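tool_call predict_complex ligand=flavin-adenine dinucleotide
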Amino acid sequence: MTEQSTISAQARDMAARVERFVRDEIVPYEKDPRRDHHGAPTDELVYEMRAKARAAGVLTPHILPGGAHLNQRETAIVLIASGLSPLGPLACNTMAPDEGNMYLLGHKANAEQQERFLKPLVEGRARSAFFMTEPAADNGAGSDPGMMLTTCRRDGNHWVINGRKCFITGAAGASVGIVMAKDETPGGSGGACMFLVDLPDPAIRTDHVPNTIDSSMPGGHATVTIDNLRVPADQMLGEAGEGFKYAQVRLSPARLSHCMRWLGCCIRAHEIASDYACRRMAFGKPLIEHEGVGFMLAENLIDLKQAELMIDWCAGVLDTGSLGTTESSMAKVAVSEALMRIADRCVQVMGGTGVSEATIVEQVFREVRAFRIYDGPTEVHKWSLAKKVKRDWRERQG
Ligand SMILES: Cc1cc2nc3c(=O)[nH]c(=O)nc-3n(C[C@H](O)[C@H](O)[C@H](O)COP(=O)(O)OP(=O)(O)OC[C@H]3O[C@@H](n4cnc5c(N)ncnc54)[C@H](O)[C@@H]3O)c2cc1C
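tool_result ok
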């Protein structure tokens, strides 16, 4: 049996510092009006909060000086703490998609690429975007990334990329892009490739940034057209044709870190709802003493603990060096569904206040709803788990 990874005292200390920083310095920003048209914080606000995180020694807290990454179990306690406010991950630079992109570049980029594309991200001076999904109207890559329509073709010392992408979080305002495309070079790999791209580039045109249910991610989720984008060959990440393998390297930890951050948010939403239920009177006693309300908060406690345990278990598996594809699917379904139940109960316990902008509870509800879709919808994870059930059955048959 592989030995369980451990959580160092240094990581516990960092998690405690991040929690103090988010509660004391970032929560007050929740009422800051600097938001874009779809409700996401502006870059001015993001970089102001980051300056505070830098001063407090909690910027990019999951990556140690020198570039080493905390193990996944350690990352969990730090990212849960950063998630105690929807603004916390932006301030601490633990947010999506940058956190997942940093992880990928830390594992797959060469030294030169790391210096140029990863360093500014780790230092919190730049934002990045991951270009995989394509419009449903084109029947492009979505739940099934194998349906990718965006193409790349080798042309001398360059690659030329063409296609359309959508739901590209943070594309507006990012300076680093990771673009996926299918190799259509005659005699080429025929597989998917990943490219590191300087943004903005006139060959990547923003068609529109839709209004979406969530509002925590700067830049929103753009639909873009890529028209003859020329990328120098040395900006390919790894090898041609290996793009889907690299996507797997990124996806398991990235979907787990979403679980971590949104668990932090739901812990806070539960605190707010509990406070409401203990103070608010109805029918001669505090709401919490009405069984219908008390039981909702009791169920929250159970779901919060289940989410925490599932994250810690899956993090431990990733720490063994496993890709953890099955485990991260299980964790993503279990945690996102548990968090949805928690967020919904918090709204319900708080009545009208729960759906108003008075607290972050309504935002947490909206954010977690979207989380049940990105990084693999619940049904797609269950479908891939069902395939495993059948594989295991076949193996048992011999
Ligand atoms: C807020 C947000 C941010 C995002 N950020 C990014 C980003 O930065 N970069 C990026 O590349 N993409 C991003 N995405 C895209 C996201 O990864 C896709 O939305 C997701 O993969 C689903 O693809 P789709 O939307 O095309 O849904 P579809 O593929 O059209 O699927 C629709 C529904 O069909 C069902 N379904 C599909 N397959 C199966 C199956 N096998 N079994 C059962 N049911 C199934 C599921 O219920 C699914 O929700 C983001 C999405 C959202 C909502």
